[in-house]
Amino acid sequence: MPVTSAGILLHRLTADGGVEVLLAHMGGPFWAAKDAGAWSIPKGEFVDGEEAALDAARREFQEEFGIAPPEGPYAELGTFPYASGKRVTVFVADGTGLSLDRMRFGEFEMEWPPRSGRTASFPEVDRAEWTGVDAARARLVKGQRPALDALLEGLDAAGA
């Protein structure tokens, strides 16, 4: 059975009519010096007993950023498969007014350096930024790029 995750893609309109999305740079030593393909929407796997994808997405946003996600409304953009077989269900909401200053990133532990027997803590996310859609396409991990297309299609359909 494939791994399933859920996440939230926040967007906002710029003064010149452009679209920006909120991305998170993945934390930890593997991603530290990378930019292209090293960013993600805040997302994560379902926990035991969690059935609603939006509940998982909202919980993961809170865990990764240390702040509650916007109240919504949310729309489901779709479920997007990764080459690995993992599937992520992405929800979208307007993030206008969200303050990045209050973010406090969650942490994870791993053996570091490899095969050292020592455990180190790293932030799940080491920074978050509002990014234009074109730049976001290059920055996002490959499996999440189709969510940008779905967002733009939805905004076009809504006349935004």
From TrEMBL:
Residues 1-153 form the Nudix hydrolase domain. One of its GO terms (biological process) is ATP biosynthetic process. InterPro entries: NUDIX_hydrolase-like_dom_sf, NUDIX_hydrolase_dom, Nudix_hydrolase_domain. Signal peptide: none annotated. Transmembrane segments: none annotated. This is NUDIX domain-containing protein. PANTHER family: DIADENOSINE 5,5-P1,P4-TETRAPHOSPHATE PYROPHOSPHOHYDROLASE MUTT (PTHR21340), NUDIX HYDROLASE DOMAIN-CONTAINING PROTEIN (PTHR21340:SF7). PROSITE patterns: NUDIX. One of its GO terms (molecular function) is bis(5'-nucleosyl)-tetraphosphatase (asymmetrical) activity.
